[in-house]
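FORM 12-B: Structure-to-Sequence Request
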């Protein structure tokens, strides 16, 4: 059996709010192959975002493990986890999370500025700007490079967020309802872009959605229900 690119093993997550304990994930097992495009569906509040955050090291599980290329990563020291997260994972979100005061180019460059000491960034900034511009072109935003988010449509904002997620050359793209705020045609254009990135760049993609027609476009769908993976079905 080929080794999975990324796995969740018996993942549990319980949130504590005041006196209350809310169990959200109750033992989730998922394995994702390198280059696979996986959809995770489930009702609002079923824990889809929680699961994505755990797999991408944005949060820690209460119980269980996250395994990348056969190695456990959820229990690494804080700074190692931070570096690994920046190197391995790209994230996109329903509401884009762009910085409103920055242009498209500056938003896309932001992860590189954060990642490197400033003298390294300044030394390499021509190379980085070229890289960012290439990626912006690839996502179809070359004509919007100096625009700010408020001057963009929803689809254009998501393209900018996708470009930003790609600039650090991630292995795994984690997409949380990436079409959730878009009309169906624009949503489909974003899906076409994600499919192309998956096929051409062999990017592993884990996408959360509650839209079945979007979910079906992945290689495989898993359903999160009552804290567990409920149904496994092959997409068309
Ligand atoms: P989904 O993305 O499927 O809508 P979430 O993972 O966002 O679901 O949330 C699952 C459940 O966990 C919800 O009941 C939500 O209120 C709760 N929850 C999520 N994040 C937190 C948190 N930081 N603290 C407490 N409860 C949370
Ligand atoms: Mg969510």
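FORM 12-B RESPONSE
SEQUENCE OUT:
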């Amino acid at each position: 059996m080929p080794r999975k690119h990324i796995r969740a093993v018996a993942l549990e997550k319980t949130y504590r709010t005041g006196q209350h304990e809310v169990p959200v994930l109750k033992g989730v097992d998922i394995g994702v192959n390198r280059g696979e495009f996986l959809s995770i569906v489930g009702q609002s509040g079923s824990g889809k975002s929680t699961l994505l955050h755990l797999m991408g090291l944005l949060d820690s599980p209460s119980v269980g493990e996250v395994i990348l290329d056969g190695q456990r990563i959820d229990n690494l020291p804080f700074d190692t986890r931070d570096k690994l997260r920046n190197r391995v994972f790209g994230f996109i979100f329903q509401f884009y999370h762009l910085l409103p005061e920055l242009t498209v180019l500056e938003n896309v460059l932001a992860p590189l500025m954060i990642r490197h000491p400033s003298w390294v960034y300044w030394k390499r900034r021509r190379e980085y700007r070229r890289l960012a511009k290439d990626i912006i072109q690839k996502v179809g935003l070359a004509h919007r490079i100096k625009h700010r988010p408020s001057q963009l449509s929803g689809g254009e904002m998501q393209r900018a967020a996708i470009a930003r997620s790609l600039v650090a050359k991630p292995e795994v793209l984690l997409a949380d309802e990436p079409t959730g705020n878009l009309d169906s045609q624009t949503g489909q254009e974003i899906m076409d872009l994600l499919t192309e990135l998956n096929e051409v760049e062999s990017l592993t993609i884990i996408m959360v959605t509650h839209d079945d027609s979007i979910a079906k476009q992945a290689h495989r769908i898993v359903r999160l229900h009552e804290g567990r993976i409920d149904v496994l079905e092959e997409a068309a």
